[in-house]
Write a structure and sequence with these properties.
The chain is of the alpha+beta class. It contains eight helices and 20 strands. α1 links the parallel β1 and β2. The structure holds flavin-adenine dinucleotide.
Length: 388
């Protein structure tokens, strides 16, 4: 290998997590190279499609809540520095049968962490937000701090801020492999070879290829589809009239947004058609069967929104066995840090992940409690717990 350049830190993958990491590293005065195999931002990984939900009532596990507090703080800071609104607060609704995870966990999160919230039955929810038509028996937690992030704009903001502090970013350059070199690393791309003291791998759906065999079975890509439907009556679904929402129902767990940015009511089903994929060979077309899943759900729970799709897009989840992220140092190479397996609910954390991955790379430890996200905690498969 011929080495052309040396950096303090190389970040592989400048998507949601990598863009925040190059920014935090550059803020710390490190020489940093971010490399992405596609453009920045791109529509090939996990961070496109305009919007991502952010919420405090973390029904999956209250251990995420301290990280969320810091994530909100950092998103606010980043949008102020970027001079562009990235975070839109709409409030959020988490609904299910009273004993199911989404309602029960959301309520527990609010109570444990003293988050303001309101607890509605199906009629009260429709009175407050007329777009929802939930069946009798479902309950909903409304938490006012939830909202959405403009995911591609967040990547652009982080990368612009990083470049303003001297970060070097290369798009359209694929990392082929990496290897330890003394206490540092060598990174070979389809163009050349670089060296660095530290390496951060934030390769989204490709993480298990760059970290094989370590993550082969632990960070598994899955095809997703989201749709924007034409509402019959747009009013209840406008920004300002509809919160972001998650509904756990017999048909599956679905999520969605008020209309924003492009026409239509955006929704998706977590794990969509449960299709494990290779991101290099995935079916990136959207089909009538994809639309049917989303349309039938809308027809029952948001009948006024259930028109034909105006747009559809594929995207990729990278699932771990229990749906918890993998944020750790490489067990055999402590100079390599990985942020992977964000299991369909990672974007909202990207700001704080930038801070955590930077601290792990530079200091070897982080001030945040991420013990529940370590490689030793990844555990065995349990699909039901995977969420968004
Ligand atoms: C449909 C959908 C809905 C979602 N909804 C939400 C939500 O509402 N809220 C939420 O918080 N999260 C949500 N998520 C999850 C969230 O979007 C992801 O967890 C997050 O985007 C993951 O970011 P990442 O940086 O790991 O991956 P990415 O943003 O995909 O970045 C990985 C990057 O690595 C690059 N790369 C890969 N391999 C190489 C290589 N060999 N060389 C160079 N570059 C490489 C890729 O090109 C890519 O740009 C959703 C995900 C999907 C798909």
């Amino acid at each position: 290998m011929t080495t052309t350049d040396h950096y303090d830190v190389i970040v592989v993958g400048v998507g949601g997590m990598g863009s925040a990491t190059v920014y935090e590293l550059a803020r710390r005065g490190k020489t940093v190279l971010g490399i992405d195999r596609f453009g920045i931002p791109n529509t090939m990984g996990s961070s496109h499609g305009l919007t991502r939900i952010i919420r405090m009532a973390y029904w999956e596990d209250v251990a995420y809540i301290p990280l969320l507090r810091r994530a909100y703080e950092l998103w606010n800071e980043t949008q102020a520095r970027a001079g562009e609104q990235l975070l839109y607060i709409t409030g959020g609704v988490d609904a299910s049968a009273p004993d199911d995870d989404v309602y029960k966990g959301s309520r527990r999160a609010c109570e444990t962490h003293h988050l303001p919230h309101e607890d509605y039955d199906h009629t009260e929810l429709s009175n407050r937000f007329p777009g929802f038509v939930l069946p009798k028996g479902m309950r909903a937690i409304y938490q006012p701090d939830a909202g959405f992030l403009l995911s591609e704009r967040c990547i652009v903001a982080h990368v612009n801020l990083a470049m303003a502090r001297g970060a070097i970013i290369h798009g359209h350059e694929r990392v082929v492999n990496w290897e330890p070199a003394g206490e540092g690393v060598k990174v070979r791309t389809d163009r050349t070879t670089y060296s660095a003291d530290k390496l951060v791998i934030t390769a989204g759906p490709w993480a298990n290829k760059l970290l094989a065999p370590l993550l082969k079975e632990l960070a598994v890509p899955e095809r997703q589809v989201v749709a924007w439907l034409q509402p019959k009556n747009p009013e209840p679904f406008r920004f300002g009239n509809l919160p972001v929402w998650i509904i756990q129902a017999p048909e599956g767990t679905f999520y969605g947004f008020p209309s924003w940015g492009i026409p239509g009511f955006k929704l998706g089903r977590i794990h969509h058609r449960e299709e494990t994929v290779d991101p290099d060979n995935m079916d990136r077309e959207c089909h009538p069967e994809d639309e049917a899943i989303l349309w039938s759900f809308a027809k029952r729970y948001f009948p006024e929104a259930a028109g034909r799709a105006l747009s559809m897009e594929t995207c990729i989840f990278t699932n771990t066995p229990k749906g918890h992220f993998i944020v750790d140092r490489h067990p055999d190479c402590p100079q390599v840090v990985l942020g992977a397996g964000y299991s369909g609910h990672g974007f909202k954390f990207a700001s704080v992940m930038g801070e955590i991955l930077t601290e792990l790379a530079v200091d070897g430890k982080t001030r945040h409690n991420i013990s529940f996200l370590g490689l030793n905690r990844v555990g065995t498969w349990n699909r039901d717990l995977r969420s968004k």
